[in-house]
Amino acid sequence: MIKLAKPYIPERAYDLVKKVLESGNLIQGQYVTEFEQLVQTYLSVPYAKMVTSGTAALHLAMLALDIQQGDEVIVPAFTYPATANAVELVGAKPVMVDINFTDFCIDTSKIEAKITSKTRAIMPVHEFGQAAKMDDIIAIARKHKLKIVEDAACALGTDYEGEMAGTFGDFGCFSLHPRKAITTGEGGIVVTHDKKLARKIDLLRNHGAEKRDGKLDFCLPGLNYRMTDFQAAMGIPQLEEMEQIIDIRQQQAQEYNALLEAIDWVQTPMIFPERKHVYQTYHVLIRNRNRDELIQLLREKGVETNLGAQALHCLTFFAEKYGYQPGDFPNARDAYNQGLALPLGSHLNNGDIEKVVDLIKMIH
User: Where does the signal sequence lie (predicted)?
Assistant: First the structure.
């Protein structure tokens, strides 16, 4: 089976994890601090906080910005549900905006029409490792005095016009799930330039606990979103090889692009000169063919594929709560119904991508 994805774990990670386990100091210790410092350097941000998941990162960002019941947050209609779930979890309303087919990110030309007196923030998603149009989003946010929380779950290493994704807004939130370029099993990162917001994340991820005059105090009702030290030890060696990991994914994407060019019913990812795409997912659109039948046929031939992301308004919870119809966000709907994620990553052997494409060509 050619797997869709498989984590790359350097040998040094095994040694570091063993040291942590042997030490008995398992929770948010020296390796979490080291991991945070490495992320700060890599992204050129002053504050990076490790948490339990990308979803936890988004949830903490909402809490730290005091977004609550009655507020609205702009989100793309095509993403993983965690984006909108984080808004729902604080009692606010995720207000959906359709996407572009060019980059599968939020269509910035449609954002302002959805802004109301209740809108508090915009949450762009850098979908599949491709950056959203952050210059447009920043201009809109400034005009309407809105916060920006970047869902950069797939986009560690992505940049837009020379600046790292996740570093434009009030918060950037990353995932370290096993399907991401680097992983700690489950895990996430919150980054910010704001010292006060960083302190709130510190408190919120650890029960609201803080040392004052040498004594432990609890300053607000927080959560247990702490990363373990052995997770951080697993992630550090991967982050140290981040650029090599991205290079492999970009080379594989180029190979796919060249081989799929001759298939007129497959739309490959667009390349933008001002954006660095890290290809957390190599996502194509299947036109004029049954995508689900293709998934099944590839599986029968030993190739694992999957959907790219979800059309939120087509999911039961959001459709029932807000009365959405499938045609309300047509690009999101079509990307959901026609999108296909193909195998990508350092686990692929020579010839695997060519084999995948040859099997796709056999579909009529």
Answer: none
